[in-house]
Amino acid sequence: MSSVLTFATVGFAEAWWIQIIKAVIIFLVGFTLVPLALMLDRKLMGRMQMRYGPNRVGPFGALQPMADIGKLLFKQQFRPRTSVGFLFAVAPAISMVCAAGAFAVIPFGNTVDIFGKEVGLYGIDVSIGILFVFAFSALSVYGLMLGGWASGSKYSFLGAMRSAAQLISYEVSMGLSLVGVVITAGTLSLTGIVEAQAGMWFIVPQLVGFLIFLLAAFAETNRPPFDLTEADAELVGGYSTEYGGGRFAAYYAAEYFHLVIASAIAVTMFFGGWMLPFGIDPPQWVDPIVVIVKTVLVVCFFIWARTTFPRPRYDQLMSLGWKILLPLATANALVTAILVVVTH
Amino acid sequence: MSAVIFFIAAIGALAGAIGVVTLRNPFYSVLSLVGHLISLSALFLLLRAEFLAAAQVIVYAGAVTVLYVFVVSYVGDGTVPLGPGGLRLRNVSMLFVGMLFVELAIAILGSGLKAIDGKGAPYVLGFGSPESIGEALLTKFLLPFELASLLLLVAAVGAVMLARRRAGGRTLEDIAYDDTRYITPRTLFSGTMAEAVGALHAPPEDPRETARQTAPYVPPSKREPVPTPVADDDAKED
């Protein structure tokens, strides 16, 4: 057992082979949700804009993401003569790894008995919980910045600077918006936070925090209307201008991965994770399905917002982040702290 | 297993630190600093200080060093090698490095070497967790903690004061505050959207500029021949 505890104390230590199996399963779940979100994005957006969306490949066009990814992977890799080869190749991988790494702490259910062994339905349950996610999202900025810089192109470089500034700005409000939840739950561990929502989902007492989180998540995941890093209609293409083929696919998939993770975090922190409302207590094998369904619903909300709102100007985005969201998030954390101290 | 991870992280940390001072391109220098910080956080994880590890990555690698990368990628593109620096600066830095070396040597010789044969400090459950760090900061180390936060506040205010707009055009202070709009009023004639769509025209800065704009158009063939510039030393670049 001691070998399991090499790295940090985890809330629930398991045998190494269970950890490996869990890692593979979580990886598979993650990489199933990503094409699903991609597909949903295109189909749902098509329906909202009175068109069909992709409907050629497979039944109802369901295999379109596979066709897209296949096409991108088989394209020839090329790069500008001015680019820095090593960094140019590594940067999309950094984006991808950081996106996938954050998925490890998302809880899909409590510990269950499988063949007489207790297994937690999550990758790891670290005591730092949500900070783990933030650590990876902080590092994912490097994926964009290195990609933009190593491209050796002014368009890429300026796009990368835009996105880095945006991500750093909104990371602050995003972190502060979740402080209220952490104070209310009294723990940083994500499973602990879900269990603390047994009586009432945190969206009710932490509504302000949720709204701030949602707005910041749009900017953090580069989703329209806050997709100022790419802004397809206005810029050449942001940091990924010079990318094509598999490397572009990595960036693209990482973006959707961030979307899925942001939705899963919203579900975990505000929508009660694997719990169902009105005292419904289904058997435990339903828990992961509940989490995934809730996550997909939040993804649908992101797509809905994409088709509804126009894109703000860059300085408006920055003003919103620093002058509205940040003070509001700070006030929210402060008021929550005072209330918790008073009521306890 | 932990020994393997320790050596990987330690080698990474050392290589990163050496890279910071030896690499000539400032961009790569900052990148190896990032590598160094990530290796350090892996070492923190080995010591079961999860909170410190996460804070290391979020604050240093994720925020501070990103700003370094920002600045360096704008100004230092690596084509200009770092200069030798002033002689005085070099002497002062030598002095500081010497002092640091002596201090570390005293610390290591005084205490660290005794611990080589002994066992490490025992691990108490919960040590290094967010709870215990928060408790230590708010009870035992309350005064240093508050002083450090005051220092950070002063630094933040100072940065805002240094970075505010001063020169040229209208400044923020000239524009009446309107609490219904949260948009920063931009300095006029700094490339605002209003200028881009032609709703606002900047006054010409140079009288010659005005002359050129108001003068009737003369096709290039009928212009007076411009005397060819005398080649000077700067023209060698061509």
Task: Describe the fold and architecture.
- The complex is a heterodimer of chains A (344) and B (238).
- With 344 residues, chain A is mainly alpha-helical.
- Chain A has a domain at 79-103 and 130-343.
- Chain A has helices spanning 16-48, 64-73, 85-102, 130-150, 154-185, 190-196, 207-220, 245-270, 287-308, 314-343, and strands at 111-114, 117-120.
- The longest helix of chain A has 33 residues, at 16-48.
- Chain B is an all-alpha fold.
- Among the domains of chain B are: 1-78, NADH-ubiquinone/plastoquinone oxidoreductase chain 6, subunit NuoJ (Four Helix Bundle (Hemerythrin (Met), subunit A), Up-down Bundle); 133-163; 168-200, no CATH class.
- The longest helix of chain B has 26 residues, at 50-75.
- The A-B interface holds A 3, 6-9, 126-128, 131-132, 134-135, 137-139, 141-142, 145-146, 149, 157, 161, 164-165, 168, 171, 175, 188, 313, 315-316, 318-320, 323-324 and B 1-2, 5, 27, 31, 34, 38, 41, 45-46, 48, 50-51, 53-55, 57-58, 61-63, 66-67, 69-70, 73-74, 125, 129-130, 182-184, 186, 193.
Q: How would a textbook summarize the main sheet of chain A? A: 2 strands, antiparallel
Question: What's the average pLDDT of chain A?
Answer: 87
Number of helices of chain B: 8
The percent range for strand residues of chain B is under 5%
Question: What are the segments of chain A in which pLDDT stays under 50 over at least 5 consecutive residues?
Answer: 1-11
Return Rg of chain A in Å: 20 Å
Supply the helix-strand structural class of chain A. mainly alpha
* First and last CA, distance of chain A: 38 Å
| Rg of chain B, nearest Å | 29 Å
Protein chains sharing the most extensive interface:
A-B, 36 and 35 residues
Largest sheet of chain B: none
C-alpha termini separation of chain B = 60 Å
Class of secondary structure makeup of chain B: mainly alpha
